[in-house]
Design brief:
Bound molecules: pyridoxal-5'-phosphate
Oligomer: single chain
Strand content: 5-15%
Number of strands: 17
Strand order of the largest sheet: 6-12-11-10-9-7-8
Largest sheet: 7 strands, mixed
Helix content: 25-40%
Shape: globular
Number of helices: 15
Radius of gyration: 22 Å
């Protein structure tokens, strides 16, 4: 499509947008009395208006029923999380029984590493991307040390090539083959938080499995953003948070995927708790653990209903719309943003560079040349909510549910003014 950098053109795209009604289904913060241009759905998604209802329902049931709410609330609390597996499975390309919701992301990755990182004296190495999200780096280091191993030896980071801003699949596959039978686990962020790159999860998973390793994915920036086929790709496990593109609120619960081949097993190493044991016998308070026959076997504690309520609210929207429609809008709006950025860059003579490769979701990471924090501060003061990553990257993520094409056009105008001023 031939884009134009005009308000009329942007408004025309909005008029054709099948998701246009959803913009009004979210609360937008205001700056200077005006609704912001929100680019940080990759950090914290906006609050859906319907979330309040879901939270109020739990609060009312708690007030009126107290402990009886576990079984007699409108949506009983003891199995509240079970309502989420089906819609979430569609978002991540899994079977319903392979998905559960519990804890938070890093906690879940630790729990899953208990099951899927089982180092031996020969096979003990972990492959990850260089400069993985810091929480993942701390997790790898502490897991490796927990097993009495040396992080410098056991953690193998895939580097980008000199002068390049992205990872090459062939380099990752080559490293997997090189580490070969010393490789215990491949665990990478499916979409990189810094440059927005989407990894070729199918190819990398296949490569990891072919040398006998387990393969897991941190899907924090992938879930609700890109097409996932965790089951078909043969992924062993994955986890994601729900507060970014899933719009379920700050620090909220995490989803997990465990491949069906590990379900219904009593011999799999796992840290266990009472919510992982069979529902039918849970309250018999028996000493034996009988795992649930789905990913809920990894549940440890009883579900945090008040935080699951916003997640469930958000999932009703994903159910209504579906990933296909979201991805179509994502492609169009991200391409339009890219076009606007290139137009402005031309007009201000090469002040920045998009470092996100073609394999991307909705995030574009922009490396500033000669511009710095003052530009970021200018954007924020003028109602463009974006984020800054050291040393000089601005991340822009137009979330397809609520971002408009007009936002992209207006952002371009503010950006241009900001660059010329700073
Ligand atoms: C890629 C990635 N991994 C892990 C985390 C940590 O998430 P949590 O604080 O929910 O454990 C984040 C948080 O933004 C992230 O972006």
């Amino acid at each position: 499509m031939q884009f134009q950098n005009t308000l009329e053109f942007a408004q025309k795209l909005d008029a054709e947008d099948p998701l246009k009604e959803y913009r009004d289904a979210f609360h937008f913060p205001k700056v200077n009395g005006k609704q912001v241009i929100y680019f940080t759905g990759n950090s914290l998604g906006l609050q859906p208006k319907r979330t309040q209802e879901f939270v109020d329902e739990v609060m009312t049931d708690w007030a009126q029923l107290a402990v009886e709410g576990h079984f007699y609330a409108k949506k009983p609390w003891w199995d509240y999380h079970e309502r989420m597996a089906k819609p979430l499975a569609k978002v991540v390309g899994a079977k319903t029984e392979e998905v559960s919701v519990m804890n938070t992301l890093t906690v879940n990755l630790h729990f899953l590493m208990v099951s899927f990182y089982r180092p031996t004296s020969k096979r003990y190495k972990i492959i990850c991307e260089e400069k993985a999200f810091p929480s993942d780096q701390y997790m790898f280091q502490s897991q490796v040390k927990f097993h009495g191993l040396n992080p410098d030896d056991a953690i193998v980071e895939i580097k980008k090539r000199e002068g390049e801003h992205f990872w090459r699949t062939e380099d990752i596959v080559a490293k997997i083959n090189e580490v070969g039978n010393e490789l215990a686990l491949v665990l990478i962020g499916g979409v990189n938080y810094y440059n927005g790159q989407v990894f070729d999860m199918k190819t990398i998973t296949k490569a990891g499995k072919s040398v006998g390793a387990n393969v897991g994915w941190d899907l924090a920036h992938a879930v609700g953003n890109i097409e996932l086929k965790l089951h078909d790709w043969g992924v062993d496990f994955a986890a994601w948070c729900s507060y970014k593109y899933m719009n379920s609120g700050p620090g909220n619960a995490s989803g997990i995927f465990v491949n069906e081949k590990y379900l219904n097993k009593t011999d799999i190493p796992r840290f266990e708790g009472w919510w992982g044991t069979k529902k039918e016998s849970r309250f018999l308070m028996k000493p034996e653990f009988e795992p649930m026959d789905n990913a809920d076997a990894w549940q440890v504690s009883n579900p945090p209903t008040l935080s699951l309520a916003p997640y469930l609210a958000s999932l009703t929207m994903f159910e209504e719309v579906g990933m296909k429609t979201l991805i179509n809008k994502r492609n169009k709006i991200t391409s339009y943003l890219e076009f606007i950025l290139n137009e402005i860059d031309r007009q201000v003579e090469g002040s920045f560079e998009i470092i996100t490769p073609e394999d991307r979701g909705c995030q574009l990471s922009v490396l500033l040349h000669g511009q710095g924090r003052p530009l970021f501060d200018y954007l924020m003061k003028n109602g463009v909510i974006t984020d800054w990553r050291e040393p000089n990257v601005i991340r822009l993520a137009p979330a397809p549910f609520y971002s408009s094409f007009e936002d992209m056009y207006r952002f371009g105008q503010i950006l241009k003014k900001g660059i010329l001023k700073n």
